[in-house]
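REQUEST FORM: STRUCTURE PREDICTION
Request ID: SP-0412
Submitted by: Lab K.M.
Chain count: 1
Length (residues): 205
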Amino acid sequence: MPLFLHPADPPGKDRTGEYELTVVAGYLFDSTINILRMICSNFLDRYRAPKLICVHTGAYSLMLRKRMQRDFSVMLATLLDARMPEPDAVTLAAGCTANSAFQARAAEAVNALKQGRSLTDAMRAMDDSGEFQWRLTNATHSRSGFLAALSGWHDALNAKSFQLEQAAAHVVSTALVLLNGLFVACVVISVFSFLISIVNAGALW
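STATUS: Completed
RESULT:
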């Protein structure tokens, strides 16, 4: 059963009441907060069956997720290059994201490592798409170290985050332009209606 997520009562409405900022920014912020709370509280891990449908293209949560992935990967690669034990590196890298969802999945990966599974196999718990696992597998065979081997993916995550940020900005700008056009159209229609009524009244008089 799909779960539809839509903003209803964005915080800070007392500051966004003017200039239609509630529509332009408030609802996007509310969607972002709700989505991130669902992620950080492990709601999506506990209830995997429902499909989550988010309005406003997921607001800002998509680009923030890419940044959290980048931060985790950069920190993990740095710690692995420093010869830190893999379970400690995974735990510390997840802690640096300040995200409980990453930390919960990191705990699963650490348990897998303690059971004798390889690092790349344990990373399945951290990445549903499998892309990070694949890139980490290639990095283990690199002579230049994890950070250098994963630098291309880190740049790609930065680019994806920036692309999503620009897409969100375009959505907001388009909504603002449409809202402004609607306002102008209402003003023009009301003015012309008033003039037509005056002309008709003059003709009848």
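NOTES: The longest helix spans residues 146-204.
Reviewed by: T.R.
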